[in-house]
């Protein structure tokens, strides 16, 4: 077999098939040439699609022995060694025949399969993220499930933040009378007046937002010194 003639004829066929894409890098001592491949959705300088450049170099006895293959300029994937191993298998199966077109087609198919896997992983990740966000939103509107003990612990912290405890202590020292609302908020026995009817295993739902704006309520706790319960409204 005239290996040089076989190689030259294949180059002419490849130039026709990959017109405008095949690039001859060297002729002597053997042809070295490059062919770019990419997936259909490939967009340069983005994360869409995969691409690389296959560089081939003939050997003295090609096609009766494998030619040299290198992978360069790969984008959005770093598994070039796996692709080279895949092409090595293809070469061993096609010894004795010109095979560059077969190798390029096999590399193109391999690239498409990898891109499909990447898209699937991205879709699964996006779906999982959406599910977690929806679950977090559902929990936010569901309210906080608490036991009697955790409610009392929260109530103590809440009172401390609102300053009711300090206000009562200050009022006691100064001999001032607390309003009805302040008495309710600072009387610990009132905290447990209803909770004592719950069993240990019971849980209650508490919407904490109901307690956030108590200071905005217009509650008039001042006593009416002129009020007489024995005088009806109609007696006036």
TrEMBL record:
Gene3D superfamilies: Ubiquitin Conjugating Enzyme (3.10.110.10). PROSITE patterns: RWD (PS50908). Pfam families: DFRP_C (PF16543), RWD (PF05773). Residues 9-114 form the RWD domain. This is RWD domain-containing protein 1. It comes from Harpegnathos saltator (Jerdon's jumping ant). The lineage of its organism: Eukaryota, Metazoa, Ecdysozoa, Arthropoda, Hexapoda.
């Amino acid at each position: 077999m005239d290996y040089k003639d076989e190689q030259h004829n294949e180059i002419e066929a490849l130039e026709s098939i990959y017109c405008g894409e095949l690039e001859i890098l060297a002729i002597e001592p053997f042809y070295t040439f490059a062919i770019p491949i990419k997936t259909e959705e490939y967009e340069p300088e983005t994360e869409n699609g995969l691409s690389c450049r296959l560089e081939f170099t003939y050997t003295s006895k090609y096609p009766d022995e494998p030619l040299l293959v290198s992978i360069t300029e790969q984008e959005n994937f770093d598994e070039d060694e796996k692709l080279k191993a895949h092409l090595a298998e293809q070469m061993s199966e096609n010894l004795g025949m010109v095979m560059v077109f077969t190798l390029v087609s096999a590399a193109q198919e391999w690239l498409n399969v990898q891109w499909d896997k990447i898209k699937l992983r991205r879709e699964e990740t996006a779906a999982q993220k959406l599910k977690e966000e929806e679950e977090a939103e559902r929990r936010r509107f569901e309210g906080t499930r608490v036991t009697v003990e955790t409610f009392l612990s929260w109530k103590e912290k809440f009172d401390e933040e609102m300053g009711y405890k300090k206000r009562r202590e200050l009022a006691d020292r100064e001999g001032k009378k607390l309003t009805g609302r302040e008495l309710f908020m600072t009387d610990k026995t009132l905290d447990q007046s209803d909770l004592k009817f719950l069993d240990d295993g019971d849980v209650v739902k508490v919407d904490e937002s109901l307690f956030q704006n108590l200071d905005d309520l217009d509650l008039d706790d001042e006593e009416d010194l002129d009020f007489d319960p024995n005088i009806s409204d109609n007696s006036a």
